[in-house]
Amino acid sequence: MSDISAAITLCSTLHQTYSEFSSFFFENWQKILSFKATDKITNSSKLRVDLRFYAELIAVGIFTNKTGLPLLGIVLTVLINMDKEEHNNIPILLSFCKHCGEDYAGLVPKKIKDTAKKFNVTVPRNTFIPAEKQTAVRSLLKDYFLSLTKHLLAERAQLQALHAANQRTLHTRGELSQERKDQLEQHQATYDKLLVGAQNFAEVLGEDLGEAGEPLTLSMTVIETQGTVTIGGNDEIIMQAGTDPWQDEDTRTFYTSLPDLKVFMPNYQLKEAVKNKTETVTEEMLDEDLKEDELSDNEEPAPVVADVEQEEAQPANVSNKYALDAFLNELPNCINRELIDNAAVDFVLNLNTKNNRKKLTRVLFSVARTRLDLLPFYSRFASILYPVLPDVCVDLCQMLKQDFKYHVRKKDQINIESKIKVVRFIGELVKFGLYSKMEALYCLKVLLHDFKHHHIEMACNLLETCGRYLYCNPDTHQRTMIYLQQMMRKKTVSALDSRYVTQIENAFYYVCPPEAPAQPKEEEPPMHQFIRKILHEDLQKSNEEKILRLMRKLNWDDPEVAAVAIQHLAGGWRVRASARRALARLTAELAAWQENVAPAVVDTILEEIRVTMEDPHPKYNQRRIASVRYLGELYNYKLLDSRDVFTVLYSFITFGVSNDHSNVSPLDPSDNVFRIRLVCALLETCGAYFNSGSSKKRLDYFLVFFQNYYWFKYSDPYWTEENKFPIYVKYIYQECLSSLRPKLTLFTSWQQCKDAIEEIRQTLYPDLGEDEHFDNDDQGEDSVADGLDTIIETDDETDNPHMPEESSDEDPITESAGNDENDVQTEDLPIEPRRPAVKPVEDVEFESAFEKMVMENIAERQRENRPQQRDIAVPMTCRQTTKKTYEQLLQGKEGVEFVLMVRKGMKPQYKSFNAPPELASNLQQQALADKQEMERVKRLTLNISERQEEEEYSAESGGGSGGGGNPNRGQHVRQKYQHPKGAPDADLIFGPKKFK
Questions:
Q1: Cα 960–chain centre separation
Q2: How many whole angstroms separate alpha carbon 191 and alpha carbon 218?
Q3: Which of 282, 320, 772, 787 is the most buried (most CB within 10 A)?
Q4: 606/733 Cα distance (integer angstroms)
Q5: For residue range 591-616, what is the model confidence (pLDDT) as tens digits?
Q6: Cβ within 8 Å of residue 424, ≥6 positions away
Q7: What is the three-class DSSP state of 759?
Q8: Are residues 488 and 351 in the same domain?
Q9: 954 lies in some domain
């Protein structure tokens, strides 16, 4: 169809070149388009293209109207008259109307006509052929459209009648035969096809479908099918269909999402004979089979699967037999979806022979009666094989059906586990669509017919396995509801054991759970909703200032509002990961205005981390990660100290950790490696700042202990070759340490970590003897029992790593942390006082040298000559006597008047004398030199202070060696305004005074 324009261009060129082209070309078109009304169109697609091609040839002038139009009119007339009942030529005529209807019939689409009418515009008419001939063609097409509309209404009525009949059958019998379902689907497809064609015709012709155009939705769902069952008293359970049979999305995926093995077998074709074996069996056929196959009490079930072909004495491929045995032995270990899917692919690709399929069927059927957990996986295995190996599934279902009949006819009270295995296996196959739903309901009907003893347990297990699926399926809902009612009536009228009563009620409520009353939702106050919205939904980097102003406007004097605001500010796990840093920055800026915000938020987060460590459930893992990263962001904005961060880090590797593989801690089990991720998450967030000073040294020490914890978990006997240590945890651990310390050489064993820790202990605590530290076993028990074994840290301001006081204070606390029985046993024992530890020689020499240096400095300071005060202000009382008289001024004596203070008795006396000017000049020069020296010393001191401040700021900003640092650290944090104390400085307020 897309090549018609190119073909038209080629024909036009040939027509212009050769004058005889059109006549010969037309003769061939007459042969192609000449057919009778009784002829059946075999290739409608080709005719659709030919008709449009021929019409375009007339339109471009290759064929004249006189020559080409009669043949075109004959073709259209035959196509319409021969198809007024079946309407199979809709695509041919519809294509002609869409592409050539404007030229030959003057058709205007309904959409264009409505638009022109709306804007009061006249649509131009095509004058390619006379209007009379256009009217004739248009009337011919409208007649076909009217017949199509009548056909559509008739098909609609027939579909409605068929659907109503099916609904009546479904209500009375609870099921539909496959023939009726296929018939309904066929009529539905025919009606949909006619409806689409009629709608397209109405669009191109500009007509309206009317009643025939109304959509008709017919589904097989039982409309308003409800029933009530009374349980013991007056409580009635309303049962409805149409609900979801799967409990959650994982269950739905397990039973509906199966790998396609045809991808691995592209040339495989399913045999027709196998398809015939899987036809649905009606209830009457099941009754007949059951009567024919009725077994006596002592008869064993007949073998269903044909005997495996006699194998040769020496099999040609012994390795194939060994491979099959290994596969069948490994099959019971496939206890998850991935393993069972891989097993199915492996069997199809490597072990797919007739004998192997027979053996596989027997192995699936002979699953241990105690391994009920394997039944869903074996059913999935059979369901995966069904599209390419249906004989395995068919034989398995037949064996289960025969085994079920045998147990029902046997009527003995033994082998209850085997009976339960059979019915649960049938239930699992029903959910995969391998076992007929109707046959499963018939099994339930047989069990309800003789509802006693083992039949009660078999019926309850069948309902618990596939009852919910049958109940929610529209095809079997009505019948399942009837059987449920029958089961509850039998329970009511029969004197059953309490154990059976409980099983029946549990099975019923599992299939039809009672509707729980809707819990009234507690309305949250508007202020709480507002705080949650602006912090958890609206907060982002671009609107931090706006939200900060809103948070400052809150009534922080109200305890309830303040508590809710702090709760949401501390909820770093409630916000998006991209908004976590913005929330930390907002908290830091708000802390400059509200002093209680920072400590309250940090305490809340620390408590959150501690609580989640006390309950190591996997459901809190993402919450733990978010809280730890948020804590690191708060440290980046200086809301907590590095001591708090290291306390959290050490708690991750010490809280509840036994350090002994034989003594597993419930707070830190062997398979729990999530704490390694928590440590790495916190170090990745704020570890780049521990690159100078005491923080760097602390991080170096911590990395040794962290590696010790990692290798303790890695070397646990829980991890084997089959159950390997998680590789992603190893990668996270290595990337974290390499980013913090690129040149650090990682330990390769747990023993190396122990040796490094012992070396640190010898370096920091060389005087710590064997009698002063705890035994590993006792420490492990205490750490598991108390969970408080956290490494003690010194302050950031202290560079001395020795902590004799903290160690001596902590020892008795830890020693007294035992149980009451140990305390009672040790009451009568004499308590020896602790002897002071002997100081090493180096400490004694250091202390003596230090005391000697201090005494020398004190003596040297005492021997220093203090500068005497030579200039004393002249008292006001003697200033009058020092003034020169008029006669003294006339004399003009050179010199400087000095006042000499002498002491006579208890009173000072002042005598004036005239000193030479050289003395006064020397004194002034000396005073000026002293002043300049003081200014120089002051300037040097200020320069040293400024340089130290710059170095500290550079270290805080990540400018030191060992890490790049985060440029956002400490930004956007306003310092709280400090009001100046004392008298105000006028020069600072009004500027310095200016004298003219």
A1: 38
A2: 11
A3: 787
A4: 23
A5: 998 888 999 999 999 999 999 888 88
A6: 372, 375, 461, 462, 465
A7: helix
A8: yes
A9: no
Provide the pLDDT for residue 910.
75
Return the SS3 of 525.
coil
pLDDT at 290: 45
pLDDT at 459: 93
DSSP 808-835: HHHHHHHHT-S-HHHHHHTSSS--PPPP
Two tokens, residue 157: 């009525």
Same domain, yes or no: 455 and 534: no
Q: What is the pLDDT of residues 243-287, one digit of tens each?
A: 678 878 889 999 999 998 887 776 665 554 444 444 455 555 444
The residues, ordered by sequence, that sit 6+ positions from 210 with a Cβ below 8 Å of its Cβ are: 149
Does 126 reside within a domain? no
Residue type, 842: E
β partners of residue 907: 904
* Side-chain-facing half-sphere of 466: CA atoms under 13 Å: 32
* Residue 433, phi-psi category: left (phi > 0), alpha (psi -120 to 50), beta (remainder): left
What percentage of the chain carries pLDDT values higher than 70?
76
Single-letter residue type at 996 = K
- Of the given ranges (367-381, 398-412, 952-966), which has the lowest mean pLDDT? 952-966
End position of a domain, from candidates 772, 796, 820: 796
pLDDT band at 800 (very low <50, low <70, confident <90, very high): very low
SS3 for 100-154, per residue?
HHHHHCCCCCHHHHHHHHHCCCCCCCCCCCCHHHHHHHHHHHHHHHHHHHHHHHH
Q: Say yes or no: 393 and 473 in one domain.
A: yes
How far apart, in whole angstroms, are the C-alpha atoms of residue 407 and residue 469? 24
Distance CA 113, CA 92 (A): 24
Asked if residue 72 lies in contact with residue 96, where contact means CB atoms within 8 angstroms, the answer is: no
Is the domain of 627 the same as that of 649? no
Say whether pLDDT at 305 is over 70.
Answer: no
Residues paired with 236 in a beta bridge = 230
Residues 450 and 528 in one domain: no
Q: List CB contacts of 622: < 8 A, sequence separation 6 or more.
A: 573
Domains in the chain, number: 4
Statement to judge: residues 346 and 259 lie in one domain:
yes
Residue 202 lies in a domain: no
Q: Between the CA of residue 283 and those of 174, 292, 432, 473, 786, what are the distances in Å?
A: 11, 14, 21, 18, 66
Domain membership of residue 92 (yes or no) is no
Distance CA 792, CA 705 (A): 13
Distance from CA of residue 792 to its chain's centroid?
Answer: 37
Which of 731, 750, 747 lies closest to 739 in space, CA to CA? Answer: 731
Q: Are residues 604 and 698 in the same domain?
A: no
Which long-range contacts (C-beta less than 8 Å, at least 24 apart) are formed by 14-21?
15/62
Among candidates 198, 205, 197, 199, which has minimal Cα distance to 110? 205
**Helices (H), ranges, 307-374:** 318-330, 337-350, 354-365
- 597: domain CATH number is 1.25.40.180
> Tokens 């800026």 appear where?
589
With CA atoms as reference, report the closest residue to 196 among 155, 141, 164. Answer: 155
| 534 and 663 inside one domain | no
- Which residue type does 42 have? T
CA atoms within 13 A on the CB side of 977: 1
Element (H, E) at 741: none
The tokens for 522 are: 């507690």
CB 54 within 8 A of CB 72: yes
In degrees rounded to 5, what are phi and psi of residue 341? -65, -45
Residue ranges making up the domain that contains 899: 878-915
854: Cα within 13 Å, side-chain hemisphere: 6
pTM (two decimals)? 0.39
Mean of the pLDDT values across residues 972-988? 54
User: Three-state SS for 237?
Assistant: strand
pLDDT value of residue 313: 38
Mean pLDDT, rounded, of the chain: 78
Residue 900 identity (one-letter amino acid): L
How many angstroms separate the CA atoms of 501 and 385, rounded? 39
